[in-house]
Automatic annotation (TrEMBL):
GO MF: metalloendopeptidase activity; zinc ion binding
Record carries keyword Transit peptide: no
UniProt-annotated binding residues for Zn(2+): H140, H144, H150
Residues in CUB domain copies: 240-354
Superkingdom of the source species: Eukaryota
Annotated protein name in UniProt: Metalloendopeptidase
GO biological process terms on file: proteolysis
Domain Peptidase M12A, first and last residues per copy: 42-241
Gene3D superfamilies reported in the protein's UniProt record: Collagenase (Catalytic Domain), Spermadhesin, CUB domain
Length: 371
């Protein structure tokens, strides 16, 4: 039986306990803890791409979905928020289902679990009320539906983590079996939303089953949200022509210098700032973008949130008379660089977080170049 004490799991929090007991109490047969084995395979190793969601002619992967009416308004908003992050950072777009035969049905079944990849028909992603209602958990299960497996089950995982088999019951060994998967040429990601926590399936109080090395103190098992490498894997797996960066440090700088030559033609780039809590102060340190007089062809947009559907802070910014600063209303902010590819945009920006309001407040109307 599972004997881990709460005092042994500092940092994991209540969600760890709720989720674990949801898993062991689930009546659905699960592989690796949260994957229902309709097909035992990894979509990353997928002949003829038959298990991927199809790509449209416009380059987007359109996935119809339905959210069960059993959820409250607040729970639905949390699910939608988790879904919108894919639209911001990848070419995966979840859309409301109309008459499509193949779609994802998000429903509060008996745990947190999903199928691998596209299985056809009404495909359940179970997000149980309570312990499963967290952005990173929802995205974890949606990643399974896209064809992603757990990070610690990579075929090269023994170079990065130590599995303590002596603390795993023989009946749970299969949860830790390495998979024959294409790792897409991307490095191991301790911060992946697809990584198990260190006490997963432990049968001995206080004993970890997964230990990172060479640094055993590296955090694993976060469920705050997609990591940068999670995003990179999705974009590479689905061949998304998306230029996106996730910024999650409490203080960081970023710039357009990621492009050493001409900017990709008619391609937007986004930087999603997402911190665990508190507001965000964004400061432009330098900015000059050649554009038409009204900044229509090349400009910057800044949104108060993690989606293009959120309020616009800075609208069509290219040659401001003064470098603007803005403060978010929450813990996310989106910066989008729009270009027609004719010039190389130049800007540098930085951000920081704070528990209370900063010295200046959010503008009451969108800031436009020239103001």
């Amino acid at each position: 039986p599972f004997q881990l004490n709460p005092s042994d799991t500092l940092g994991l929090g209540l969600n760890f306990w709720v989720i674990f007991f949801i898993y062991i109490g689930s009546k659905t047969r699960l592989y690796e803890g949260d994957i229902t084995p309709k097909r035992h395979r990894n979509a990353i190793v997928c002949p003829f791409n038959w298990c991927f969601w199809p790509k449209s002619s416009n380059g987007l992967v359109i996935i119809p979905y339905v959210i069960s009416s059993s959820y409250t308004r607040e729970e639905k908003a949390l699910i939608v928020g988790a879904i919108q992050e894919y639209e911001t950072l990848t070419c995966i777009h979840f859309v409301d289902r109309t008459t499509e035969t193949d779609y994802i049905y998000i429903s509060p079944k008996d745990g947190c679990w999903s199928y691998f990849g596209k299985v056809g028909g009404s495909q359940v992603v179970s997000v149980r009320k309570g312990g499963c209602m967290r952005k990173g958990i929802i995205q974890h299960e949606l990643n399974h539906a896209l064809g992603m497996l757990h990070e610690q089950n990579r075929n090269d995982r023994d170079k990065y983590v130590l599995i303590s088999w002596q603390y795993i019951s023989p009946g749970d060994f299969y949860h830790f079996k390495p998979t024959r998967a294409n790792n897409l040429g991307l490095k191991y990601d301790y911060s992946s939303v697809m990584h198990y926590h260190r006490f997963a399936f432990s049968n001995t109080s206080g004993k970890a089953t997964i230990t990172p090395f060479p640094d055993s103190t590296v955090p694993i098992g976060q469920r705050f949200g997609l990591s940068n490498l999670d995003v990179a894997k999705i974009n590479k797996l689905y061949e998304c022509e998306i230029h996106s960066t996730l910024l999650s440090n409490l203080t960081e700088s970023f710039s357009s210098t990621i492009y050493r030559s001409s900017y990709p033609k008619n391609t937007n780039s986004v930087w999603l700032i997402r911190i665990p809590a508190n507001k965000i102060l964004l400061q432009f340190n330098s900015l000059y973008i050649q554009s038409s007089s009204d900044c229509a062809s090349n400009h910057i947009l800044v949104y108060d949130g993690g989606s293009r559907r959120d309020t616009v802070f800075l609208n069509k910014l290219c040659r401001p008379k003064q470098l603007p600063s803005v403060v978010s209303s929450g813990n996310m902010m989106l910066v989008e660089l729009v270009s027609d590819g004719t010039t190389l945009p130049k800007f540098k920006a930085s951000y920081s977080s704070g528990k209370s309001t900063f010295r200046f407040t959010t503008p009451r109307k969108p800031f436009t170049s020239g103001e």
